[in-house]
Design the sequence.
């Protein structure tokens, strides 16, 4: 149709013309933050020339301070698993506040089916059920935990998609309900002494293995499957998604179920890692998970962001926490500083959006 | 019923509670025909479009598509039957790129046994998009850009390009140029002419008298929920149509209707 004289350029598909991905900015921020801590370590008088990143005292084989890197990634791994689900919820322009208490409730429930019968030859003092629930194979606590998560997610999703309750309110209600379930489950007592096989899935660097494997899986899902595409479409323009024939309600229920199952899995792993489950576990986890997503460039307006962004956001949060401890910043200042960083990330997101629109 | 009728409605009626938005519409469009639907705001134009595209469920009446009676449960049904609609409010997802938007809700996939996690065939969709855009003469700098960064005209072209990509059997456009500038309007009108040359039937809802007179074969006028005129372009002019729209005149065959 060469007679169409009103076009703005030809019809092209040019891979090289793709815009600078947002994730690169976060990676850049991550590097800058590390450099800042490194410099602070050099110039602060009380630091004695310690290095943040490098192995200056020759404690490890590599040039890096492996202990610190391990702590950073281990610290973010469990909340990171939650953040993978929260990311998907936020991409649909929703929010999930219930994940922290869900971690606690799931930890309690899963641990009840992952206890060992004998502790040092004596009956398990924290046994919640009779011997029938003792020494079960490790799949039992995992399946029970995931099922509970799926159940809670289905309720969240149903209220939000079918009864049109705003996500903030629906999940705030579920936040309290789950904390209540966690307290009620064992009457406030901790549930402890897991079997060896259950202990194993949360031991050592296992949480990191879970986090990174799930991150890869969900990155592929969000990028290369119909589920991912529809999740972005709903967050981008729900009306358009509906008119295009996407079953928006069913899809939202699915997204909330997946998010809650990921939070539940985090609870299963946290209980295994801690070798005990307590009703107060997972405090503020929902907020840190949301913070990871927001720092990772997931827009609260929906439609934008990626799993890679959230993983980087998790690393940023982990590095900042570890860095504050490294420069011996008091815990109270740490909270204040972290709050400021989250607000800054949101301001940055809105600024970006205004420039793009 | 004659073979060359694309879409026919009989006594199509829609009530919203007590409001009779559309009453007894008998409409017909033949193969290769371009028909304009005109009328004042609230005359029932968009209501009519929403009934035949399955966006809403009609109160009563019948609809035939290519001689077959149809009852669409939703917009996807209508789309699968070959009715492609460009809505007044653009049904585009801003954060997705051109192929994503074209194929939204009916993605090309493989490994379908994976259910909702079936894999997207990006390459196939990209190629079909290029072919569809070429067919309609739409020019877009880079189809991998997200819709957010495009001009109103480009967005409208993307919405229209869906029709060409999916070899639709009937195209419906609801005010496609209402929000566009002069150049962009011309671009969209060129696409409509391309569809005409290709013999694709089209229903065009428009307020723009010049556009209607230039582009279509027949003009159907709605007033207060009823069809009041069905005019061949040769037999009418702008003033005549306005008379029908405002109520100064009513078509002979529609006397007593309004």
Sequence:
């Amino acid at each position: 149709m060469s007679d169409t004289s009103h076009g703005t350029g030809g019809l092209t598909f040019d891979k090289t013309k793709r815009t600078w991905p947002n994730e690169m900015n976060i990676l850049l921020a991550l590097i800058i933050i590390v450099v800042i801590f490194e410099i602070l370590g050099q110039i602060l008088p009380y630091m004695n020339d310690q290095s943040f990143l490098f192995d200056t005292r020759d404690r490890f084989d590599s040039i890096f301070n492996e202990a610190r890197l391990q702590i950073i990634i281990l610290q973010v791994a469990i909340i990171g698993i939650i953040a993978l689900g929260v990311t998907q919820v936020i991409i649909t322009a929703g929010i999930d506040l219930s994940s922290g208490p869900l971690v606690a409730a799931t930890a309690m429930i899963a641990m009840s089916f992952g206890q060992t019968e004998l502790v040092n030859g004596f009956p398990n003092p924290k046994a919640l059920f009779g011997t029938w629930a003792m020494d079960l194979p490790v799949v039992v606590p995992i399946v029970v935990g995931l099922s509970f998560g799926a159940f809670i997610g289905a309720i969240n999703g149903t209220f939000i998609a079918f009864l049109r309750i705003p996500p903030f309110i629906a999940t705030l209600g579920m936040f309290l309900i789950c904390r209540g379930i966690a307290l009620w489950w064992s009457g406030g007592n901790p549930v402890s002494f897991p079997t060896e096989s259950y202990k194993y899935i949360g031991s050592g660097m296992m949480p990191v293995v879970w986090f990174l494997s799930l991150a890869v899986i969900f990155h592929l899902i969000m990028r290369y499957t119909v589920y991912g595409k529809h999740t972005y479409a709903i967050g981008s323009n729900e009306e358009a998604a509906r008119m295009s024939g996407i079953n928006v309600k069913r899809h939202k229920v699915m997204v909330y179920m997946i998010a809650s199952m990921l939070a539940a899995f985090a609870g299963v792993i946290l209980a295994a890692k801690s070798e005990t489950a307590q009703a107060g576990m997972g405090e503020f986890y929902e907020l840190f998970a949301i913070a990871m997503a927001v720092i990772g460039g997931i827009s609260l307006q929906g439609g934008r962001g990626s799993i890679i962004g959230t993983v980087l956001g998790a690393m940023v949060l982990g590095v900042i926490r570890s860095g504050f401890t490294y420069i011996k910043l008091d815990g109270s200042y740490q909270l204040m500083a972290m709050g400021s960083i989250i607000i800054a990330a949101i301001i940055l997101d809105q600024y970006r959006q205004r420039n793009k629109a | 019923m004659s073979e060359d009728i694309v879409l026919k409605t009989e006594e199509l009626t829609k009530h919203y509670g007590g409001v009779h938005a559309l009453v007894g519409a008998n409409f017909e469009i033949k193969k290769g025909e371009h028909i304009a639907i005109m009328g004042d705001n609230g005359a029932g134009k968009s209501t009519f479009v929403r009934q035949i595209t399955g966006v809403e469920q009609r109160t009563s009446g019948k609809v035939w598509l290519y001689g077959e009676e149809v009852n669409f449960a939703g917009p996807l049904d209508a789309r699968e039957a070959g009715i492609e609609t460009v809505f007044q409010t653009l049904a585009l997802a801003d954060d997705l790129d051109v192929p994503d938007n074209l194929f939204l809700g009916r993605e090309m996939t493989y490994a379908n046994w994976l259910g909702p996690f079936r894999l997207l065939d990006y390459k196939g969709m990209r190629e079909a998009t290029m072919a569809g855009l070429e067919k309609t003469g739409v020019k877009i700098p880079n189809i991998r850009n997200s819709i957010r960064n495009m001009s109103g005209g480009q967005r409208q072209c993307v919405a229209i390009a869906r029709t060409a990509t999916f070899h639709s059997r009937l195209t419906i456009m609801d005010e496609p140029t209402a929000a566009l500038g002069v150049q962009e309007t011309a671009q969209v009108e060129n696409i409509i002419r391309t569809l005409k040359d290709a013999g694709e039937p089209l229903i065009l809802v428009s307020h723009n008298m010049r556009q209607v007179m230039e582009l279509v074969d027949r003009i159907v006028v709605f007033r207060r929920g009823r069809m009041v005129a069905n005019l061949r372009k040769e037999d009418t002019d702008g003033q005549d149509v306005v008379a029908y729209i405002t109520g100064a005149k009513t078509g002979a065959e529609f006397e007593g209707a309004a």
About this structure: Strands of chain A lie at 118-119, 122-123, 191-192, 276-277. Residues 1-10 of chain A have pLDDT under 50 and may be disordered.
